[in-house]
């Protein structure tokens, strides 16, 4: 009898052990299957990302090379050919900017910065090529009377401080103001629409640019308030201090700028380099034809990355750059009329 009981216990333990062993094997097999599926999904995800990166690099490189070829073809060409090449290069550059904007979501920060830097270089080359080729003579400047009469006064050399406004007849593709102090300056939509606008060496001036320029360049701006309508491509700021700026644009690139407020609407990401004390808030200036100028520019009203700023001098991951801040709502300017 005792032997039979022991045998039955052994048999019962054997059955339980086999069941537990089977259960463990099933769990282990299920884990292997899940791991295999996860590795497969990760591999597919990496493959898709690599394909996107490869496609972006290929397309960006090809479009960039096409623009560079157009710019190099301007050398030695006649005025009509140069004008056509520059117009085509401008269109292709805008398309390249849009392609970059649409690819932001899957690009790494390094790839994004490299691409933005390359695009900025292209845009600067385009502006330089236009400045050299159209027209083929130096800009003429003209004095501004108190009654705002605009009498043309060509000079062979750059103007002295306070002397004037770029002659739009001599520089049909470019408009702006240069070397002025303590002035209230305006440009109408007809004067700047689809042109490059250059503001340089202005001190204690208030500037209002109504319309949609192609690009906006600000150089050596001190103690000024500059407001501009929607810029269809890029704004470049260099050596600006103690100023207030406001504009919508596709891209903002700021260098060597200190203690300056920027009221911004930007559809990509703003870039600062060698800057300190720059602060940002949403673009808030308004004028009667602003909606129409937004349509002309092609900028999205809904997409505004005003507080997404890349500082090329600050690479500490996870730590905010000390070189820029957001303007507190209570301190933001809401009234712009002089």
From TrEMBL:
It holds the Pfam family TBCC_N. InterPro entries: C-CAP_CF_C-like, CAP/MinC_C, CARP_motif, TBCC, TBCC_N, TBCC_N_sf, Tubulin-bd_cofactor_C_dom. It comes from Echeneis naucrates. One of its GO terms (biological process) is post-chaperonin tubulin folding pathway. Belongs to the TBCC family. It comes from the Eukaryota. It is found in: Cytoplasm. Residues 156-314 form the C-CAP/cofactor C-like domain. One of its GO terms (molecular function) is tubulin binding. Residues 26-50, 147-172 are annotated as: Disordered. GO terms for cellular component: cytosol. PROSITE patterns: C_CAP_COFACTOR_C (PS51329). Keywords: Acetylation, Chaperone, Cytoplasm, Phosphoprotein. Tubulin-folding protein; involved in the final step of the tubulin folding pathway. Supercomplex made of cofactors A to E. Cofactors A and D function by capturing and stabilizing tubulin in a quasi-native conformation. Cofactor E binds to the cofactor D-tubulin complex; interaction with cofactor C then causes the release of tubulin polypeptides that are committed to the native state. This is Tubulin-specific chaperone C.
